[in-house]
Amino acid sequence: MELLSSWCYNGSLPESYVMPPESRPGDLIVPLGKSIPVIDLQCHDQIETVRQILKAGEEYGFFQVINHGVLEDLMDETMDVAEEFHAMSGWDKEKECAKDPKGSCKLYTSSFAYPREEFHLWRDAVTHPCRPLDEHIQFWPEKPSRYRKVVGAYSVELWKLSCRILEFICQGLGLSSDYLSNELSQDPKIMINHYPPCPEPSLTLGLSKHRDPTIITILLQGQVHGLQVFKDGRWICVEPIPHAFVVNIGYLLQIISNGKLKGAEHRVVTNSRDPRTTISFFVYPCDESLIGPAKGLVDARNPAIYKAFKFTDFVAAFILKPDKEALKELISAPRILD
Ligand code: OGA
Ligand code: NI
């Protein structure tokens, strides 16, 4: 497996990157000016902030946050380091990601299932755990030389921001504000995606339509378009706003909220001009956590529409060996009609 960024500047799009017609980007049919909600986290009326977050989570499963408290300089520096990392030679990247004998730092192209894929995706990625920091940072890349310092500081700030957002969400759902502040959210991972310019953006994708297998995801997307959200049968572009974060509800939070919040489907399209680098902060549960609709959200009138399951079993059915039937079997509870 050779990284995309090692050969992609050589001309045409290989056949294996051509998506079947129904999955291709196609034309965007989105009313002008329609985008996902933007929420100001510095708003003094906290009840209003909670209301906006919940509404966005219900309607879109996506929103952007501004005035979120993470320093702009740190965001810029982290994006610089992310770009520098992907600009290194393939050999260097592999070496820098091989420091943990257990393989906690992963580098791949397309998806980690590259050898089994029918179609490849136009992206490279590196991912690693980030909490507790002192347990993991020793296995992170040491090149670029400021990688650990900068990405370490960034992951501490993103952890704080995710805790705040989770508390808002819990309040909005009517749960105790620390309902998610436990093993349900304690294993966050950083992922740095890189989408080089693509010779045929209309035929391929950077990421195909998916839901994140997370509680929430907080994305720094830089200034290049590419992320789209699927809503009401249409694709909506997520406008880059300088120094905003894009937040999305993950599939697991959809389940915990008993379907009230939407783990929205999204994808990434490519373009032929600008390389695009993004940084995802995935809030994951611990492996053994039990995921299911929160008790406080289930009663005779609102029966559970999902069963409870262990996060590892979900990973097996949803990520490692995607199997729609196995996933349905794992999560669906029969709806009890009254
Ligand atoms: C992801 C994702 C979006 C982007 O990493 O799951 O959806 O714009 N990323 O890179
Ligand atoms: Ni995603």
TrEMBL record:
The keyword Transcription regulation does not apply. Keywords: Iron, Metal-binding, Oxidoreductase. InterPro entries: DIOX_N, IPNS-like_FE2OG_OXY, IPNS-like_sf, Oxoglu/Fe-dep_dioxygenase_dom, Plant_2OG-oxidoreductases. This is RING/U-box superfamily protein. GO terms for molecular function: metal ion binding; oxidoreductase activity. It holds the Pfam family DIOX_N. It comes from Hibiscus syriacus (Rose of Sharon). Residues 184-285 form the Fe2OG dioxygenase domain.
